[in-house]
Amino acid sequence: MIIRYFYVFSERPKIFPVDSLAEKVYFGNAMRLNDRIRQMIRDRDSLLCVGLDVVPEKIPPHIMEGEDPVFRFNKGIIDATADLVLAYKPNLAFYEALGTEGWEILRRTVTYIPEGILKIGDAKRGDIGSTAQKYAEGLFALGFDIVTVNPYLGWDSVAPFVKDEERGVFVLCLTSNPSSRDFQYFSSGGKFLYLRVAETAVGWNEKGNCGLVVGATHPGELERVREVAPDLPFLIPGIGAQGGDLEAAVTAGTDERGEMAIVNSSRGVLYASSGKDFAAAARQEAQRLRDAMNSIRRKKGVE
User: Fold this and answer.
1) Per-residue model confidence as pLDDT tens digits over 267-297
2) Residue 87 and residue 289: Cα distance in Å, rounded?
3) Does any domain span residue 252?
4) In terms of pTM, does the model score above 0.85?
């Protein structure tokens, strides 16, 4: 098969294979978000998401000694891993904590992420409709493709984020933190709340742009959610530092084709080294995770 390439010009040239996702997006034949996620998984052969959750105290000293350390650290991580990942996911709290400067760092970071890579804003927003509308406007204006949302307030708190079929949400379903059991395992009519959230999100997916956040720390429950929502993309945090098992998460979280899962690692990649080799170490860990996930996917018969 002959593969042709074309350039997309921006701050730096991007190269994509023709007849792939990039042609559909950049030549005016845009896809629904969830279709785009599936195609990107195939094009990039990766499920890996790197969480850009930067703690200044953990940035290598030689970066902190210079100007603009947080952005320079993010830039180093992105440059080292961009060909290995499916997505980057800045958690907004780490930038909000830096004040007004943090918002500018976030904007520059999102802008710097190459085209053809998903940009997930981990904001966990949830508010009444008029406020949700402004949250959606602000976050998508930053350049995010997807935003995490809290469904506790119901449909009108999510609706503004799914108006455009090319952008959408990951709905918090079953989170990776230990206290997730406080509410998410509440049972009514013999069904846990997290499963009702999954069922509801399937109904919200009319424009093909809803997904679910399901933690890797719940592999058995992850499998149950996949049964309820066989076609939705899952954002799966919790591997590595939070104790989630990678093989169990990929096996249970992907669909029958070994796709539709985005598996996040933050600290394990960002802080693989605290020295001058931080970027090289991040790349090594990202490649290990990418390759391990692909090996697990192959066991499901994915080619």
Assistant:
1) 999 999 999 999 999 999 999 999 999 999 9
2) 13
3) yes
4) yes
Q: How far apart are CA 22 and CA 98, in angstroms?
A: 34
Q: Return the C-alpha torsion angle 136, 141, 143, 147, nearest 10.
A: -10
Report whether 263 contacts 249 (CB < 8 A).
Answer: yes
Residue 73 lies in a domain: yes
24, 58, 75, 124: the catalytic one is 124
Please tell me the chain's helix, strand, coil percentages from 3-state DSSP, rounded to the nearest 5. 50, 20, 35
DSSP at 59:
S
The residue type at 221: E
| Three-class secondary structure of residue 247 per DSSP | helix
Catalytic residue check, 124: yes
Dist CA 50 CA 78 (whole Å): 9
Query: Residue 265's domain spans which residues?
Result: 9-298
91 near 50, Cβ under 8 Å?
A: no
